[in-house]
Amino acid sequence: MKIKLTAKPGTSSQVKTGSWRELSYPETDHEKCIGCAMCEMACPEGICFKVGEQNSKGKFFYEADLDYCKGCGICAEVCPVKAITMKEEKK
Amino acid sequence: MKKILEGSRAIAETIKNIDPGVVSAYPITPQTHIVEDLAKMKADGEGKYEYVRTESEFAALSVLIGASAAGSRTYTATSSQGLLLMTEVIFCVSGMRLPIVMTDANRAISAPINIWNDQQDAVTMRDAGWIMLYGETNQEVCDLHVLAFKVAEQALIPVMVNLDGFVLTHTVEPVEIPDRTLIKKYLPDYQPTEKLDVKNPLTFGAFATPAHYMEIRQELHDDLAASKKLIAKEMANFKKLFGRDLNLVEYYGDRNADTVVVAMGSVIGTIKDTVDGLSHETRSIKHGLKKNKVGVLKVVSLRPLPIEEIIKAIGKKKNIIVIDKSVSLGEEGILAGELRRALFGQSKAKIVSIVMGLGGRDITPELIKKAIDLGKKTKENCVFIGK
Predict the structure, then answer these.
(1) Contact yes or no for B204 and A6 at CB 8 A
(2) Residue A11 forms part of a structural domain
(3) ipTM score for this prediction
(4) Domain housing B144
(5) What DSSP assignment string belongs to B362-382?
(6) Does one domain contain both B253 and B331?
């Protein structure tokens, strides 16, 4: 057996599953975002999070990591201020 | 020293001498006596292993995945529906390259429900990436278990040792239990190259995308094919140390016979007796001696299938009659199909599949004679002989 079959913890981040996204990707309007964290809690991939920047109203806004986002659209659905829209994926 | 023991007891004593770290168990007929005996040995303080009682066969093999990944030598036994319930885990074990050894006491599968012997259960797993060995007698089965651990732990491929349920598991035979100190000499402690360890966390059976999966499967395929040489080598080493023969295939009877009967497991004993009887009959009537000569080929290793050895042993025969206690429904006996594949383009023999002994139906010398006669005459690919 030559191929190493075990993996170190955390190495699954090397698998950029965002390439599995087919139809659409989320785009966040940073100005509309109120920083409520609904998208973070609802995201099944755990890839919506604060990026540490503030918008003009002083809110720390959220963003999706498109390297791993599979485009399910749940974040856009749960956003209470409709700050997230699903845009057509163009590969 | 030889002891008169029930087959299951002989296997349990052998396993005790092999010193596994973890034995998991879920009872199912006709395997139950093996794990019952191991439980008793543990309770009596003779067995040093951890003994885990699980809630299903699925769990029994899953427990061993954890134990084996943590670097322990592991063992369990099952039969029939239990083996089928394990299916998902069976593929995981070989895919994770864990050297688990499991006994399968071969039994018919449902439906209709039937607890008696045939070989349908294990052959259903022949594509799972396990080494699959079949013993003819309880002695051979015990010896194959010692070999199984030696091969599994070197090749990092799990091994399933098969024996016929009831016919062997519940039969009392004289057996020389492989000696503990000899086993220690033959089989060093299992040294895993990687293991589960809280200080150095690792993932076993991790995710593989299309970029990696295929090479991993191919490596398992290549290593399983290459394990044939390792098995042959370890069989030779076994003989040097223990003085008993183990072979990938074994030819019995007249080398010049033009007809050969091929099978796996305990039925080989009946076939040998039948064939011996045939040559007696012909000798006594002093004519037709050559015409009636029949050889026997025992196949011990179904996976890897020792194709070259089979060709060498029976490639030049005229009639090859394969007796199976299993069937690929709608096609033919499993071993017959394997032989057809192995001999394609290598032999001009007529290969006939004879399906016998399903669900515990007796295979008598009379039925084997019938199979040999019919096998030579019939134009069918596959014939069932039940009475």
Answers:
(1) yes
(2) no
(3) 0.74
(4) 2-242
(5) ---HHHHHHHHHHHHH---SE
(6) yes
